[in-house]
Fold:
Amino acid sequence: MNYGIVKQIYDAAREEGGGRPISARAAEALVETVKPGDVVFIVTGAGYYPEVPNGESDGPPGAAALARVIYWGLKAIPVFVTEECHAPPVVASAKAAAVMVRDFELAKNRRMGGALITAPTDREKAAEWARQVIDEYRPAAVISIERLGPNDQGIVHGSTGVPKNCVDLGHLFIEAKKNKILTIGIGDNGNEIGFGRIYDFMRDFHPYGRECQYPGGTGVITVIDTDVFLPASISNWGAYGIAAMVAFFLKDQELIQTPEMERRILEACLDAGGWEMRYCTSRFIVDGTVGESSMSIVQLLRDMLRLNIATPDRGLSHGKMKEQVQ
Structure:
């Protein structure tokens, strides 16, 4: 597993984006752009047959956390976009986060949760399909979390330079850019959508940035960029940071899941086949970290949010002394 590297990647992304904290920039863009009733695409899904046939536990929980603030906070309609094999963990995670996945018409016209779109299995149809769904749904924003994107040869890779037989959903972001739709990317290893924002840096920084584990491969770094890109040690945690900042702007702590809900979300994802990627099992793990670490991150974010939206109060021990009554 990667360790000791995310700071360099984050620093590069923050500098490229103008120096401001990235989670704040992403949340600010969402709050300013997304209006009640708007559609927001949340694109996720990594990990494939045979090791993890329904995807991994990094991605769907973060997507669910974002859907929660989009639905309950921004009053918009989260629409998950993924492949059919990745759908069960995504739906299970969303349900555990109190965002039901319903028929789009119910979600759109009755505000009954979010919806789901599955990509075509034929990779040759992905570009035309992306044009169609962008035109049909007219999303106000398109967010990617832990979704693999193509390199400069149009090949989607795992982080260790091995090609993956999956649909290229980077076409959604190409179409979004053409239509001036807000795009946000969250990733952790260079091959996820959004890393194209710091492509040159990652080509030199990543051990498989310029070559793959087969002859002629030109590296795993995706060329797909986004308007705002947030690198994180674990993509879920990056999504939690953005969700917490949206909740901060809306001054509502309850938009963020509790640690107990985080446990339910992770367990629902794992039970639905979104296995942890370190050992390819259903253990309570996300990218090598135990689930309790994710619960702790959520608790920390909730406390940071609570303290920063509360009415200023120095507490009893620091209050002004009152005249004693004799």
